[in-house]
Write a structure and sequence with these properties.
This protein is α+β, with helices and mostly antiparallel strands and 227 residues long. The protein has helices at residues 20-39, 99-106, 109-116, 124-141; strands at residues 2-9, 49-50, 56-57, 63-70, 73-80, 86-92, 155-156, 159-160, 168-177, 180-189, 196-199, 206-214. The chain has one domain (2-221).
Length: 227
Amino acid sequence: MSYYIGLSILSNNHGGIRKEAEHKKLLYNESRRILSLLEDEPFTEDDIKREGQGRPFFPDRETDFNISHSGNLAAVSLVKDGGLRTGCDVELVRPRKRIKEIAEKYFTASEREFIFKTESFFDEAKFFMIWTLKECYLKLKGMSVFDMKETPSFIDKGQFVFDADSSLSFYLYELSGFGERYILASAANGMKGEPELRWFSQISLDCKSIAKINAAPSPAETVSPKI
């Protein structure tokens, strides 16, 4: 069994400001390039099918994948073994309107306390840690962002936990460099080993592991946030 996260960051040295649609197309194409390299086998869009809620998959291959991109970063998680599933989400850490309103609507009380406990210093990264973990879970399950309110809690007493599905393991990272900061979450079922991170761009970001979250942890396995 193999578990990979492929990453690529677009250069900001592009001779002008890209239009949003052009930028998204570049990230889309880059994610497809990463997927092809991780698969070590070419594919066309006809090789990809979609589940009922739009989750892409290869119907005739023993692999599962998930794609995310934000800012200038594209990320692809991939597991190579029939029957396994993976999910990933990456977010550029940035000020976001209505953070408290979003957290109040979609996050649990313990998650909100984790994000807003220190009133004198608010770090948007804490919000995106919870957001990416929840998105990652939804994408693995083939659910949509509209189901976020139904996701299990990832925080208990200020520590990362997850006890809703004993087959799942989550990995949370902070990526930084060139004036940008990202939060990346990936998950897979049936995979206890940490994913192998691979860069597919000429430049890369510094990567720091924030947490490894195994399902149904004992108190000794509960993870304190490394921030």
